[in-house]
Amino acid sequence: MTVPFSHAMVLAAGLGLRMRPITLTVPKPLVAVAGRTMLDRAIDALDAAGVTRIVVNCHWLGEKIRDHLAGRPDIALSPEDELLETGGGVTRALPLLGDAPFFVVNADILWTEGAVPALERLRAAWEDERMDALLLLHPTTTAVGHDGPGDFTLDSDGLPHRRGNAAVAPYLFTGVQILHPRLFEAAPEGRFSLNVLYDRALSHGRLAAIVHDGGWFHVGTPEALPSVEARLRA
């Protein structure tokens, strides 16, 4: 089966509380980093990957995201009156995303490419008959702006496993992934995290992952902006 990967979603509905006071007047996805907004950087990567239909959810200062994307007929908005988190947000947008696997990208992270663009690597690694979700991971030791303990380990077959009770894990989830609509069968209603569906897929052996070979950046606070911009420009 040939998978077109023509559709994608950008998650852009967060409140950006840690980025205040900037995000009191600007939604976090529209914060410029090294001269380009984080939302535009995500859309640039999807455009380069050949995606022809992009859905962007929005909540906080959603009208500014709507105005920013005006004139892009290939982009549809999925407004949320109440925050639905990652799982609820994608679930609401499913009617706009088709019936084939699609990319999902967080609008509050940045990445630089390795030898092959990350979305191309994800597309090449996708195996439709055995995957419901394919996550892009990154080594915690080289992630910029991340101070958490990590999310996943990888076994000898390259399959991801949760950190569990371990103090640290070698890989974090980047916020870049491929999901299949079947992942959302019997999904909870309303607000919920995609982690609920990852864990279900993991229990059935249908969660997969690859490791990013470029750079990855999280801009969590206004104080982090200068160092991330310097790294991007370098």
From TrEMBL:
The lineage of its organism: Bacteria, Pseudomonadati, Pseudomonadota, Alphaproteobacteria, Rhodospirillales. SUPFAM superfamilies: Nucleotide-diphospho-sugar transferases (SSF53448). Residues 8-136 form the MobA-like NTP transferase domain. This is Putative Nucleotidyl transferase family protein putative Mannose-1-phosphate guanyltransferase. Its EC number is 2.7.7.13. One of its GO terms (molecular function) is mannose-1-phosphate guanylyltransferase (GTP) activity. Keywords: Magnesium, Nucleotidyltransferase, Transferase. It comes from Magnetospirillum molischianum DSM 120.
